[in-house]
Amino acid sequence: MPSTRVSQELFARARSVIPGGVNSPVRAFRSVGGTPRFIAAAQGAHVLDVDGNRYVDYVGSWGPMILGHARPEIVAAAEEALRRGSSFGAPTEAEVELAEAIVEAVPGVDMVRCVSSGTEATMSAIRLARGVTQRPRILKFAGHYHGHADSLLASAGSGVATFGLPDSPGVTRGSAGDTLVAAWNDADAVRGAFAAAGETIAAVICEPVPGNMGVVPALPGFLELLRAITRDHGAVLILDEVMSGFRVARGGASEHYGVTADLVTLGKVIGGGYPLAAFGGRADIMRQLAPEGPVYQAGTLSGNPVAVAAGLTQLRLLDAEAYKGLEQRADRLRGGLLAAFAEAGVAVQIPAVASMFSVFFTSRPVHDFQVAKAADHGRYARFFNAMLARGHYFPPSGYEAIFVSLAHTTGDIDATIAAARELAPDLAD
Ligand code: KE4
User: Fold this and answer.
1) Rounded-to-integer distance, Cα 321 and Cα 303, Å
2) Could you tell me if the CB of 272 is within 6 A of ligand 1?
3) What is the CA radius of gyration of the chain?
4) For a Cys-Cys bond, which of 57, 114, 281, 343 suits 47, CB 3.0-4.6 Å?
């Protein structure tokens, strides 16, 4: 069993000065148990922890590292930008180039505003939608995560589309109360919400490829329903592509499904591993943003030159060949895992959209959060820890997406599959 002594020591130190010892909860390994690995370095498809253990990495910093870690072109671009100054609080040419690249790639995006996190992007898109429609309510879906803005930390009550209940202490009923929550893929719940309160709904927001309850694809026609019903009721359709943007296709899920939103939020891949996110969409809506319009939004480090240099370099390397290569890698890994579990008689679902997929230990097809939650997450924890011990770092939660990168070789993926075949019989009980 590889040593984790230094990670354990650091984790003990961290817990005395950082809540839970981490700067983001999922990193704490709470749902899989064990000691979070403190990472010392990363290169290509591999991460190295502080005890010297090397892993094939399928977390990829939760999405940004689509080209692998420390990609030379991105390192060089960031270094070059850094030497010219790290932050000016003033406009730069590179921000214009990044906005133009996003406008060119993402269907329906005429204008873009950069921010520093996905949470800022979705929070701002919601405010903009409420500002332009003068309506208070938003409709989201159970199991979808859009960052930690108050109005989006609302969980579903029982029943069809219910008014959101605060999903965290500190979120007031006031801020969650204007959030309607429906089950994903439940067309009747969406129709019911609009029939009951359509004229008060400013926006529908969804992850068009959910990746925060595991990957739970939209059923055929569901995204088209969201597009039609928002258009019919004068509501804004917001596709939260922070995770799926530039991941499932260059134009994200909008391109993959052929559904054009009014607003799109982006993050992760567009920052190349730096704090950079964005929201964009129809010009008539985006022009309502300050300073051109009355809807206020701002950010000290928005469009940061170093982050923009890295993100722009990453986007410029993501051509059609890149997406073909990503899907080949993901298909190989997914197929190998399915075969390994089938051979061992382990019931598993591995839903996928393009190169995004996740592993649910259940025999039931997973179409919404209820079924995702009913999967055997204890078995996922056993899978996670057994793979980690063998040098393969999957997401430390069954509610996350598995990411390959263009740096993963066939050898890396086949080694991961071999490890899964070896341990699958232990998961059969
Ligand atoms: P950030 O504020 O974490 O940059 O983005 C929030 C966000 C918004 N929308 C979607 C679809 C997202 O997936 C996210 C963040 N994703 C998580 C991964 N499940 C980030 C990892 C973490 O929370 O540490």
Assistant:
1) 28
2) no
3) 21
4) 57
